[in-house]
Amino acid sequence: MSDTPTMNGAESLVHTLIDSGVDVCFTNPGTSEMHFVAALDHIPGMRSVLALQEGVATGAADGYWRMKGKPASTLLHLGPGLANGLSNLHNAKKAGSGVVNIIGEHAASHIELDAPLMSDIEGIARPVSHWVHTSKSAATVGEDAARAVQAAQVAPGQIVSLILPSDTAWNEGGVRHDPLPVPEPEVFAINLLADAAQALLGPESLLLLGGAALTEDNLHIAGQIAAKTGCKLQSEWANARMERGAGRVIVGRVPYPIDIALKVLAPFKRIVLVGARPPIGFFAYPGKPAVLTAPDAEIVPLAPAGTDLTSALEALCVATEAKETAPAHVAKADLPDRPEGPITLDSLATLIGRAIPENGIVVDESVTTGRAFFPATQGAPAHTWLNNCGGSIGYGLPAAIGAAVACPDRKVMALTGDGSAMYTVQALWSMAREDLDITVLIFANRSYQILRGELTNVGVQNPGPRAIDMLSLDRPALNWVEMSHSMGVSASRVTTCTELEDALADGLESTGPRLIEVAL
Q: What residue stretches are annotated with the Thiamine pyrophosphate enzyme TPP-binding domain (predicted)?
C-alpha cells in the first residue's frame, strides 16, 4: 500500500482506480454518490462522462472495454440506478467485457430505517455480475477497489459491482491501494489439440471462432489453418469485436434465422470451437431444434472464451502443419458499384460498404435490417465491427459512445433501428456534450420489424390488426431529426441512395456527432 495523506473513503477509491488504470467513469450519480463526485472534482486523472440514463453509462463502459481492452468504471445511484443499467450490463457480460460498477448505497444508519430508495443492491447486481462486494468501512475501500479492477480483468473480461455505502465514502481513514496484477488467462485444452487438428481435415469440418480469436492476427492464423486443411471458417452470430475489411481473412457469421442457420451448419460433421460456444438458437420455436448443428456432429471444445485463444490457434496451426501456408479467404479491396434510386436493404448495405472509412469502427445493432451487411462490407477498408452479444436492445448508441471515448482518433459509425435506438435515445445528448466523432444511422422502418418475423417463426399465421399494432411505431411516427436536434446533434433524413451517400460523406468528413435518419 502507498503512503498518502489523510483521505476519506471516496478519495481512496478514486486514487486506487486511477492507479489501477481505470481513468474513465461513465456516470449518472445521485445523493449517495456525492462524495465520489467531490473526489473526482479535485483528484486529477479521471475523465467523467455524464449520461442521462444509467443504461447509457453501462453500455458505454461495454463499448469502451471492447476497443480499449481495459475497464472503465460506472457510477450508479443505489439499486434503482443499477436496475436502469442492467440491460446493457447483461449485454456486456455476454460480450466478455470488463466493467467496474461503483454503486452508491445508504449509510448503515439509514439502511435500518427502510428509506424509500432502500433495496437489495447485491441481489440486483448478482445476475449480471461475476463479482459483487459491499465495502464495510472507509479503511477497506481502496483495497476493495483494487480487487474489483483485478476481477474485471479476468479473461475474457468480467462485470464487477462494488457497492459503496455513503458513510464509507465520507468517513476519514481511506487508504490508497497499489494495483493488483492482471490475471493470466487459463490454458486451453491441450489434451484436445491432436483431436482438433484431425477434426479439421476436409470440407466437412468447421473452425468456429469467437471472442479474441477474431483479432486480425488470429484471423490470419485461422486462414492459414483453413488453407492447409480445407476446413471452413465461421464465427458466432454476435461477436464482441471482429477485425474485418480488405487484407483481412473473411469470416462469415452463423445466421440468426434458425432455418437458414440449420441449413448452413448441416454439412459439418466435425466442429472445433475456439472462443465460441456450440451453436444454439436465440429462442425456442415449435417443432424446430434448439441445437443448430447436425445431430451427429462431433464438437471439439478446444478453447473456451476465457482461455488463451492466441496460444490455442498458434498451437493448432503447428499441429495442422499450416505455419508456412498463405491464409485462405483474404478479402480484396472491392467496393460494389454505387446504387441509384430509393433506398432498399440491398442498396443500404452497398452504401455502408462504400462509406466505411479506413480504420473505422462500426457498432452494429441493425438486427433485421443489417443481416445482409457482411457480404457488402467485406471489401471495405480495414475496420472493426462490434455486435450486440446479449440480445437486449438499446446497446448500439451507448456502445458507440464508449468506442469513441476509447479511440478518439478513429471514426465511429453506429447502425441501429428506430425501435432499438429509442431504448437509449439519451445517448445522443452525451455524444453532443462530449463532441464525440460518431455518425449514427437510424433505420426508420417504424416498427419492431424483427418481432413481425418472430410472430411467424413461433407459428402465428395471419396476425390481425391488434397484433400488428403492438409491433408498430407509427402512431405517432418518430421524428428522429427533431429529437436529434433537441439533444444537440445535427441530423438529416434521407430517402434516396444519392441523399444517403452524400449524408454519409458529410458526417464522416466532419468531426463531432451526426445523425442520419434512413427512411425504409
A: 381-518
User: What sign has the CA pseudo-torsion 487, 490, 494, 497?
Assistant: negative
Question: Are 497 and 341 within 8 A, CB to CB?
Answer: yes
What pLDDT shows up at residue 32? 85
For the chain, where do the domains classified as CATH 3.40.50.1220 start and end?
190-319
Q: Give the pLDDT score at 469.
A: 66
Question: Quick one: cell of 465?
Answer: 390488426
CATH 3.40.50.1220 matches 190-319 = yes
Cα(490)–Cα(368) distance, integer angstroms: 26
The answer, yes or no, to whether residue 242 has pLDDT greater than 70, is: yes
Q: Is residue 456 pLDDT above 70, yes or no?
A: no
Please say if the pLDDT value at position 51 is more than 60.
yes
Q: How many CA atoms lie within 13 A of 494 on its CB side?
A: 25
Judge whether residue 450 has pLDDT over 60: no
Quote the cell numbers at residue 210.
Answer: 469467437
**CATH 3.40.50.970-classified regions of the chain:** 9-170, 345-519
- Domain 9-170 has what CATH class? alpha beta
CATH architecture of 345-519: 3-Layer(aba) Sandwich (3.40)
On the 0-12 / 13-18 / 19+ scale of CB atoms within 10 A, 380 is: buried
- Of 205, 204, 203, 207, nearest to 236 by C-alpha is 207
Average pLDDT (397-408) is 98
Q: What is the pLDDT of residue 453?
A: 60
Task: Output the pLDDT for position 208.
Answer: 98
Residue 153, φ and ψ in degrees, nearest 5:
-100, 10
Can you spell out the DSSP letters for 212-279? GGGSHHHHHHHHHHHHHH--EEEE-SS-S-EEESTTSB--EEPPSSHHHHHHHHTT-SEEEEES-PPP
Q: What is the pLDDT of residue 336?
A: 84
C-alpha cell recorded at residue 233: 471458417
Q: In sequence order, what are the residues at sequence separation of 6 or more whose Cβ sits closer than 8 angstroms to the Cβ of residue 464? A: none
